[in-house]
């Protein structure tokens, strides 16, 4: 494998790495994934679902139905023990999807395989050396792989991040939990429980949701989460560790035996100081780690990938200058910083003391009010994501609503136009039409009429534009209101300068 070359190498075939590979493949970029696992099989449950904006992102690529067919629709956004219902939000997917990470990965891997992306399994990245033209990726078997760019999607202990010398500042853990799938001779009470010791939960991997209630299978292994006495343990957890923690938290170990797997997670919260060092970039857990409260990690990583993919593709293909990659850190770093802040707050609200109980009840009371509820629901679901592109129309920098369209080709939706991950300029009745000029071969121009309201989760109804430039990730880059002012600048910024290529 020495000397093998690709335009982009991705370390890690988790959800973030797979999504990024798919994005690059759609753009016609030569990309390969290096994965230390010999198969896509994932031990354990890990993340448990998708939020509304992630489902929208998958819808933009025409693959959302693959996930919806296997998961269970549910209201999964929540904070301070309050479920935040997305009913009435302006989206085709006002819900989350309960689906274990191993199934999410399997479906994404199938899509990536269809797109022809090679996954080099059983190969682990151990180091790198970058120069002006690319990166030599060092592998555990002694081989190397050459790429123009390397993206570390290799988790919180990222070898890529460490080898690139990118700092990972943040906060050490204050609490530690064991999670496991085990057989039990005594069946515990399923659900989430809190006591003076901490938080613990029991369930089964096999379940269904009826009228918002989780109904677990009658038999099978039990999934367990339990607080450890001390947050400092670093070794591989054992069955005895699990039994000890169960006795401390519940007074009984339920006869736990025959573990399928045991793992540990903490509330350590860290974020990469930079998402890019020259030709090395980071995404997903390699760029940010935090407590799993609110199910933010996997979703944030997938959306990192969708933000980065088209930008990296345009740079690799010579359409845009390298400076476009700087916008990846500028846009995604603040989003993850907010996630860290929110999850740290959620962990603080779980502390088992009377003062925290009072605070949690106060927060729950606030979330019973319409405006705070919508604000938090939009944030946690991803529907309220806003990239700061400066002053202008309230749509700019926000997700494009998935309006119903009538075009010369027939009826469609906005997200149907994004399946190939290319920018779209929607002419919705602009007088005199819209001329793309030198960008005509890079941007899809669609004349359309629309039905529906221009509404945003965080803002409500906004003024209807007559033309919109939509980036490949589904965010609005420019809005026209009876004028084409600023369109040329937006096209040059996001679709490459007119002389490029």
TrEMBL record:
<dbReference type="InterPro" id="IPR050641">
    <property type="entry name" value="RIFMO-like"/>
</dbReference>
<keyword id="KW-0503">Monooxygenase</keyword>
<dbReference type="InterPro" id="IPR002938">
    <property type="entry name" value="FAD-bd"/>
</dbReference>
<dbReference type="InterPro" id="IPR036188">
    <property type="entry name" value="FAD/NAD-bd_sf"/>
</dbReference>
<protein>
    <submittedName>
        <fullName>FAD-dependent monooxygenase</fullName>
    </submittedName>
</protein>
<dbReference type="GO" id="GO:0016709">
    <property type="term" value="F:oxidoreductase activity, acting on paired donors, with incorporation or reduction of molecular oxygen, NAD(P)H as one donor, and incorporation of one atom of oxygen"/>
</dbReference>
<dbReference type="Pfam" id="PF21274">
    <property type="entry name" value="Rng_hyd_C"/>
</dbReference>
<keyword id="KW-0560">Oxidoreductase</keyword>
<dbReference type="Pfam" id="PF01494">
    <property type="entry name" value="FAD_binding_3"/>
</dbReference>
<keyword id="KW-0274">FAD</keyword>
<feature type="domain" description="FAD-binding">
    <location>
        <begin position="7"/>
        <end position="342"/>
    </location>
</feature>
<dbReference type="GO" id="GO:0071949">
    <property type="term" value="F:FAD binding"/>
</dbReference>
<keyword id="KW-0285">Flavoprotein</keyword>
């Amino acid at each position: 494998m020495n000397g093998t070359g690709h335009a982009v190498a991705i370390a890690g075939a988790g959800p973030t790495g797979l999504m990024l590979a798919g994005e690059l493949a759609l753009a016609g970029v030569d990309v390969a994934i290096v994965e230390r696992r010999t198969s896509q099989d994932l031990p354990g449950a890990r993340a448990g679902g998708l939020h509304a904006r992630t489902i929208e992102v998958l819808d933009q690529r025409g693959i959302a139905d693959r996930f919806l067919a296997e998961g269970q629709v549910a209201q999964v956004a929540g904070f301070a023990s309050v479920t935040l219902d997305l009913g009435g939000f302006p989206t085709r997917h006002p819900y989350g999807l309960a689906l274990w990470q191993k199934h999410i990965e399997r479906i994404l891997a199938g899509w990536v395989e269809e797109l022809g992306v090679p996954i080099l399994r059983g190969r682990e990245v151990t180091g790198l050396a970058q120069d002006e033209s690319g990166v030599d990726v060092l592998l555990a078997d002694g081989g190397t792989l050459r790429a123009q760019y390397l993206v570390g999607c290799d988790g919180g202990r990222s070898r890529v991040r460490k080898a690139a010398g990118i700092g990972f500042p943040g906060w050490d853990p204050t609490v530690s939990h064991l999670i496991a799938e085990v057989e039990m001779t005594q069946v515990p009470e399923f659900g989430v429980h809190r006591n003076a010791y901490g938080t613990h939960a029991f369930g089964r991997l096999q379940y269904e949701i009826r009228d918002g209630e989780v109904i677990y299978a009658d038999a099978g292994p039990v999934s367990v989460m339990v607080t450890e006495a001390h947050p400092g343990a670093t070794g591989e957890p054992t069955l005895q560790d699990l039994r000890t923690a169960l006795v401390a938290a519940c007074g009984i170990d339920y006869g736990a035996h025959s573990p399928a797997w045991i793992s540990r997670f903490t509330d350590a919260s860290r974020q990469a100081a930079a998402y890019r060092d020259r030709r090395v970039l980071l995404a997903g857990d390699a760029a940010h780690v935090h407590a799993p409260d609110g199910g933010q990690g996997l979703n944030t990583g997938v959306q990192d990938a969708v933000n980065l993919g088209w930008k990296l593709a345009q740079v690799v293909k010579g359409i845009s200058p390298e400076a476009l990659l700087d916008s990846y850190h500028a846009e995604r770093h603040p989003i993850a910083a907010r996630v860290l802040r929110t999850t740290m707050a959620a962990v603080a609200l779980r502390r088992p003391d009377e003062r925290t109980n009072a605070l949690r009840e106060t927060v729950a009371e606030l979330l019973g009010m319409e405006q705070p509820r919508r604000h938090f629901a939009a944030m946690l679901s991803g529907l309220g994501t806003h990239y700061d592109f400066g002053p202008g129309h309230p749509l700019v920098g926000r997700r494009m609503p998935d309006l119903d369209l009538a075009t010369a080709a027939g009826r469609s939706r906005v997200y149907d136009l994004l399946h190939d991950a290319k920018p779209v300029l929607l002419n919705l009745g602009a007088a005199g039409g819209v001329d793309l000029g030198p960008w005509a071969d890079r941007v899809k121009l669609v004349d359309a009429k629309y039905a529906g309201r221009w509404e945003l989760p965080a803002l409500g109804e906004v003024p209807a534009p007559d033309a919109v430039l939509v980036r490949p990730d589904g965010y609005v880059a420019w809005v026209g209101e009876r004028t084409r002012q600023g369109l040329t600048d937006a096209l040059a910024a996001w679709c490459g300068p007119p002389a490029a290529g």
